[in-house]
Batch of 4 targets.
Target 1
Amino acid sequence: MTEAIGYERVGDIAVLAAQNPPVNALGHAVRQGLVDGIAKATADGAKAVLIYGEGSTFFAGADIREFGQTPKEPHLPDVCNAIEAAPMIVVSALHGTALGGGMEIALSTHYRIAVPKARMGLPEVNLGLIPGATGTQRLPRLIGVEKAIDIVTSGRQLGARDLLAMGVIDKIADGSPREIGLAYAQELLDAAAPRRPVSEMPAPEPIDFDAAYEATLKKGRGLLAPAYGVRAVQAACEKPFAEGVAYERSLFRELMETDQRQGMIHAFFSERQVSKLPELKGVDPRPLAAIGVIGGGTMGAGIATAALLSGLNVVLVEMSPEAAAAAKDRVSGNLSGALKRGRIDQAKFEHLTETALTPTTDFGDLKDVDLVVEAVFENMDVKKEVFGKLDAVCKPGAVLASNTSYLDIDEIAASTSRPADVIGLHFFSPAHVMKLLEVVVADKTAPDVMATGFDLGKKLGKVSVRAGVCDGFIGNRILSKYRTAADHMILDGASPYAIDKAITDFGFAMGPFAVADLAGLDIGYMTRKRLAPTRDPRERVSTYADKLVEAGHKGQKTGKGYYDYAAGSRAAAPNPEVMELIEAERAELGITPRDFTEAEIVRRYMAAMVNEGAKVVGEGIARRPLDVDMTFLFGYGFPRYRGGPLKWADMEGLPALLADIKEYAKEDPYFWQPAPLLEQLVAEGRTFDDLNKEAA
Ligand code: 3HC
Ligand code: NAI
C-alpha cells in the first residue's frame, strides 16, 4: 500500500480512503494504492470495498502535473478495470467534485452513493483531451449515447440530483462520505446485492455519429477534443468493451501530443497563477461591503450589476435625476437577464434593484462606501473633477478606482490628496459578463489597495490581471498594435473581411473589424484623434476608418460600420462603402494592392501581438508572460486552446517569429521594431514559459 490510500477493515468492508491533498488527484501513488488496496481486500476476504476521498473531495481527476511526462504504471484504465474486476462488491461514496479520472473510478465501482452537494463531470475537453480511463466506454453503457455525448463533449459538471435522475449514481444521502459509504455498503451486503460491472452491460444504441461529429467540430471552433469524444463514444456502440477502451486510449494519447492540449493546460494553471503575486503575499485587502460607481452608462451599469450579483451594496452616482433613473433602468435590464436565466429569483431581483442599489446625484451618499469605481466619460478633466469630489467625500481608507481605458492613472492619482488609495480597475464590456479585470497599479498605489482590487475581482468572479500604467495598459496597448498591423495589411491589399475570416478561422470568437463594429467605431476614432498630436511622423497611418465614422457609420449602433446590419440583424453583410474608401486611399497613396493568404494574415497579426506582448513584459507592465496570455483569453476572445499569444509564440518557435518580424521590418522599420525581450529570449534559446516558471 502507498501512503496516498489508507486501508482499514470495518467488519466485512475494506475501506480505501484517498489521502492526497488538495484534490486527491490520481497521481502515481494514488493509482498504485488503489490497485494494492483491491488486492489486499481480496486477500483479506473482505465482502465489500468502499472507496472515498479524505478532505474536500473525491478524486478530482488525473494528476495534470504528470501530463507530458512518461506515464508510470499502473495506468488509470488498468486501475479502473482492476476495481471493477474485484471479486466482491465495490462501492464509491462521492463528495466534492468527482471529475475526469475521478468519475471514471466511480463508474468502475459497482454502486455509487453521493452527498447532496457532490458534483461529477468529465472536464477533459477543457484540457484539450477526452476521458482516457474508460469513461467514454462505461458512461454510454450506463446512460445511453446522447447523454454521454453531452457530458463528454461539454465537460460540464452535474449535481447529485441530476446524476441520480440519469442513473449515474444510485443514491443520495447526508453525512460524511465515509459514514454514508459504510452504511450503503452494509445495506447492499445485507440485501446480498450482486456485483454490477458496467462494462458487462449491453452496448448502447447508436445514433448518427457522423452528424454528431460534424456538429461538435463546428461548435468547438477548431478545438479537436470534443469531436474526438464523439468518436470514442461511437466505439462503445461498435466495439467490444476492451477494444473500445484501447481505442479511447489511442485517441487520448494522440490528443496528449497536441499543441491544443499544451495550450489548454497552460490556461488551466495560468488562470490559477495569475492572482498569485509576490507583492500580494501576506498583504490583507481592505474590507469590502459597499461600493460606489460613478457614471451609470454602459460600463458603470455593468459594473454595478456585477457587484450587486455578488452581494455588494452599490451607490450609483449620475449627473442628473434623469440620468440616474436611466442608469437604474440599465442595471434593471441587466439583472432581468439574470432573472430570465434563473440565476436570481423575483424576490432577489427586487431586493437588488430596490434596496441594494442606491441611484443618486449626490456625491455625499458615498461617505460610507469602501471602494468607488469611476466610469464617467473618457476625458482627463472630467475624471480629475470627479476624483476631486471623491477625495472630499469618501471616508479615509476608501479605495478610489478608475475604469479608464487609456488615461494615466498616475495623473488621476496626483489630482487627489491620497494617491496611495488610487488604482485602475479596468473592466471589459459588458462588465457583468466579461471575465477580465485589469488591476492597474500606479506609482503610489499602496499594496493593500492592490490587494483590495484583486479581492473585488475575486468577489465578482473575475480573472484579475496586474497591469502597470501605460497607454492602454496590457490589453488595449497590444490591441492597438495588431489593429495597426491589420490596417497596414488593408492598405497593402487585404480586405477587412478576409482579415476577419482569417482571425475567426484561427479561433478568435470574432474578427477585429466585427469587434470594432460592436464596440462602436467612434471609440477608435477618438483614440486616434487623441494620439494624433504626439504621433511620430514615421508612423504609417490609414485614414479610411476616420472617413467611415465621419460619414456617420459607427458600427452596430448606427446600423452600418464595416458591415451592414440591415434591420438590426447581426448576420451582417460587408458595407460596400468600406472597400470604396479603402480603394480610394490606396489610389491616393499609389499602392498597388497585393494578395494576402490567410496564413500570412494570421502570421503578421500574431507577430504584432506577440512583439508588443514581449514589450509589455519587458517593460514590467505585465509581470509575466502568463499575465498577457490571461488578458487575451478572458478579455479579447483569444482561443483558449492556443493558450494565449505568448504561449502560442512559444509553440510556434520564437526564432522563426523573430526572423519574420525582422523581415517585415525591411518594409516598415518604424512599426516592426523587435521587442528587446524577444531578441534576448531567442539569443539565450529560452521561451516565454521559462519566464513564467522563473517567476513562480
Ligand atoms: N491535477 C493536479 N493538480 C490539480 C488538479 C489535478 N487534476 N486539480 C486541481 N489541482 C490543483 C490546482 O492547480 C491548485 O493548485 P495550487 O493550489 O498549487 O494552485 C489546487 O489543486 C486547488 O485547485 P483549485 O484552486 O482549482 O481549487 P478549487 O477548489 O477552486 O477547484 C477543482 C477544485 C474543481 C477540482 C478544480 O481544481 C478543477 O477543476 N480541477 C481540474 C479537474 C480536471 O480537469 N480533472 C480532469 C483531469 S484529466 C483526467 O482525469 C484524465 C483522465 O480521463 C485519464
Ligand atoms: P458612457 O458614455 O456609456 O457612460 C458614461 C456615464 O457617465 C454617462 O451616463 C454620464 O451621464 C456619466 N457621467 C459623466 N460625467 C459624470 C459625472 N461628473 N458624474 C456622474 N456621472 C457622470 O461611457 P462608458 O462606455 O460606460 O465608459 C465609461 C468609462 O469606462 C470610460 O472611461 C471608458 O473609457 C471606460 N471603458 C469603456 C469600455 C467600453 O467598452 N465602453 C470598456 C472599458 C472601459
Target 2
Amino acid sequence: METNTKATDDGRKIVLSGIRATGNLHLGNYYGALSKFVRMQDDYDCRYFVADLHALTTHPDPKMLHENVKDILAEYLAAGLDPEKNTIYVQSDVPEISEMYLLMNMHVGIGELMRTASFKDKARKALGIGTPAEGEDEEGIERQIIGNQTNQRVNAGLLTYPTLMAVDILIHHADFVPVGKDQEQHLELTRRFARRFNSFYKTQYFGEPVNFNFGGSAVKVPGLDGSGKMGKSEGNCIYLIDDEKTLRKKVMRAVTDEGPKVPNQEVSEPIRNLFTLMELVSTPDTLEHFKNAYADCSIRYGDLKKQLAEDILKTTLPIRERILDIRNNDEYISKVVRQGAEKAREAAAKTLRDVREIMGIKKF
Ligand code: TYM
C-alpha cells in the first residue's frame, strides 16, 4: 500500500482548511484563516471547505443551515478564492468523511476529548456552569459535566468534534492547515490521532499536518469589548458584510479606558486590543503614530477609533460588495461546489479505501 504521499503529483504541498457554517465571517475568521487561504492559493494544492457537519453540534435552525453554507461560500469567493485554483467544497458533500469519522473514533479516547478546551467551554455553556475562577480545579469542571443531572444535554457530536476535524484534514493528507490560534489544540489532537493510527497498525500512512502562518505565529484577533477574542458567540464582531455605518458605529463604541495619566504607562487590555486590530489593518506608520501618542499621553481615543474604522473599511468594503453580488448568483455557487465536491471525493475515496484496508475491512 502506498503510504502518505505528502504532496500532490505535481509536487505541491497540500493545504486543507475549513470554517463552520454558523453565520457570517468576521475579522477573526478573515485574519486568522481566510486571508491566509487566499495568500496560499498560488503556491499550494489548496482544498477549502464549509464545515456544515461541524455546525450541527450546536443545533442550527434547519431552515438557516443551508443559507449559512451559502453565505460562507460567497464570502470565500468574494475574499478572492479562485475556484479554478482551489478545490472548494461543502463537507457534507463528501460522505467519505463521515465514514472515516466513524472508523477514526475507534482510536480516540473520551478522556482526551473531554479535556479539550473548546469542548469544556461549549459543555459549560450548554449546562449553565460558570467559567472557572483562575486556578480552579479543571477536573472539577469535568466531573460536573459528567455528573450533570439537569435536563440540558451535551451531545456526543460536540465531544467527538476533534475526531471529525482530524478526519477532514487526514483524509486529504494535508501538510498545512491554516487556522487561527484557537484551533491549534485541535491540530495537536489531529497529529496525535495520526501518530496513534500509524503506531497501532504499524504503518507510516498519515503524516503530521501543521498550522501555516508565513513564518509568523498564529493570530488571535481580539474583540471590541475589551477582553477576549473576536467570536460569533461573543457578540463582539466586525463582520465582512457589515455596511459602512454599522461598522463605524461598532468601532466607535469599542471599550477603552480613561487614557494614560503618565508617560509610557502600561497599556491596558482594551487598548492593547485596539492596537492589535490596527496592526492588522493599518500601515506601520499609523500604528506607530498612535503608540507614540499613547506613550506621551497625547492620544485621543476618538481619533484612534476613527482611523481604525477607516482602515478596516478599506479591506472589508470591496469584499462586502463582491459578497452581495456573488450571494445572488446561485448558479455560480452550485457550479463551484459541484466541481469541488467531485475533486474532494476523489481524494477522500482513495484515503478511505486505504484506511478500510489497513483496519481489516475487506469486501467479499
Ligand atoms: P471556526 O469556524 O470557529 O473558525 C474558522 C477559522 O477562523 C479562525 N478564527 C480566528 N482566528 C483568529 N482570531 C479569532 N478571533 C478567530 N476566530 C475564528 C479559526 O481559528 C479558524 O481557523 N473547527 C474549525 C473548523 C474546521 C476546520 C477543520 C478547520 C472543521 N474542520 C479542518 C481546519 C481544518 C472551527 O470551528 O473554526
Target 3
Amino acid sequence: MNKVLILSGAGLSAESGIRTFRDSNGLWEEFDVMEVCSAEGFIKDRSKVLDFYDMRRRDIADKQPNAAHLMIAELKNAFPENIAVLTQNVDDLLERAECTDVIHLHGTLRDLRCESCGHIWDIGYGPVKGHICPQCRSGNVRHNVVMFHEPAPEYQTLYEKITECHKGLFVAIGTSGQVIDAGGIAKYFRFSVLNNRDPEPSMDYCFSKVIHRKATEAAPEIRKIILNFINSGELA
Ligand code: APR
Ligand code: ZN
C-alpha cells in the first residue's frame, strides 16, 4: 500500500487568520516565547501563561478552515489507511474541516489537562478559569498544549508513523522546521514535498519537490501529487 505522511505547521492555518510564530508579525515577535510557552515560564508566572492560552483559545473561535485544510480532510477521509495526518498546530481547523484521526503533536487549544490525574477534556473556546477536572474534581487544570522543555508524548506516534510510511511520500505544509526537523524526516522517505510560502534555505534542499506558494494556492497541486502517488507509487 502506498503510504503518505502529511505534517503541517502554522503556515497551514495562516490564511485562516491564525498567526504563525516566526514570520514577520508572528507570535514570537510580540510575546517572549520563554515567558508564555515554556515550563520555566509557567512555574514563574502561572496566570500569565494561562491568560496567554486563554487569548489563543478565544482567538480561534471565529476562524474557518481554508482550502488546504479541506484538501487534507478530503484525502484523509477518502484514503484513511494510506494517509497519516500529523500537525504541530493546536487549533481545531482540521477537525472543523471534518478531517478524522488528526494527530496533534503539540496538543490542542480547546482541551484542558488535569495536572492531578492527567484527564483531558474539551472546553470549547472559553477561559480556563472556573474549570475543575470532571474526573477527579481537582482545580489543578491547565491548557493541553505542549510548551518548550515539556514532554511531547505524541512524538512517539510521529516516530511510529515515520517507520510505517517511510517507503512512501512525506508532505510538509507550512512549517519552518525549527522545532520538528521536517528536513531530516524527508530523508527517510522515497519522495518528499515541502510547501511553504517562503523559501527555507536550511531545509528546502532535503525535499524531492518544493512549492513556494501559499498553502491554499498550492492545495490543488498537492492534492494531485498525493492522489497520483497513492495510485501509482510515483511522484507526479
Ligand atoms: N502558506 C504556506 N506556508 C506559509 C504561509 C502560508 N500562507 N504563511 C507562512 N508560511 C510558512 C512560513 O514560510 C514558515 O516556513 O509557515 C512556516 C511557519 O513557520 P513557524 O512560524 O516557525 O511555525 P511552525 O513551523 O509551525 O512552528 C513549529 O514552533 O513555537 C513552536 O509549538 C510551536 O508548533 C510550533 C512550532
Ligand atoms: Zn483530574
Target 4
Amino acid sequence: MTSNFSLGLTGGIGSGKTTVANMFGELGAALIDTDLIAHQLTVAGGLAIPAIRTQFGDAAIAADGSMDRAAIRELVFADHGQKQKLEAILHPLIRKETERAALESIGDYRIFVVPLLVESGNWKNRVNRILVVDCDEETQVLRVMSRNNMERAQVEAIMRNQVSRQQRLAAADDVIVNDGDLEKIRAEVLRLHQTYLALAARHE
Ligand code: ADP
C-alpha cells in the first residue's frame, strides 16, 4: 500500500524538477504531476472546457475543442478580473483531480510535483515535507532557452513571476542542487529516497 507520507517537490522553471522527479519515480515513488493535471483539464474533452466556453464564449475554444491558449493568454494578460475568473474555474478542478490522482497512485510514498508550491500557500499544509530542486539562475535561463526554444527575455519574464531562489530555499526541508552531472544527482536522489522510505514506514 502507498504510505500516507507525501512530499512536495518544487523548483523554478528549468531547475530540473521533472528530471529529478523521474529519478524518484524509477526508485518506486508515486509521482503526481500537477502541471500535467492542469494541462489535461484544457485539452479537447477536458473537464474545464464546458465552463471555459460558458464563461468566455466560443472564441476561447479552438477548432479542435481544446482551450485556445493564445486567445485566453491575451484575455487574462490585459485583465486581472478575467484572470481570476479563469482561476476560479481551474483551481478547484486541479485540486479535485490532484486528489483523485493521489488516491489512484501506487508507490512507496507520494511525490506531488508542484511548480508554484511556494507561491500557492496552502500546498505547504498538504504535504509532509518539501524538496526544492535548486540551481543558479543563469543555468535555469540557458536550459529553458534550449528546451523550449525561447528568447532569454521570455524566460526571464517567467522567472520574475516566480518567487526568488532565496524564498524557495527558505521553504525547503531538503534541497537537491541540480548543477552537476546527472550521476551525481542520481546518488543524491537515492540518499534522499532512503530517508523518505524511513519516514513513509512511520506514517503507515
Ligand atoms: P523543470 O521540470 O524544473 O522545468 P527539467 O527537468 O525539464 O526542469 O529540466 C530542464 C532542462 O534541463 C531539460 O531539458 C533537462 O533535460 C535539462 N537538465 C536538467 N537537469 C540537468 C543536468 N543536471 N544536467 C544537464 N541537463 C539537465
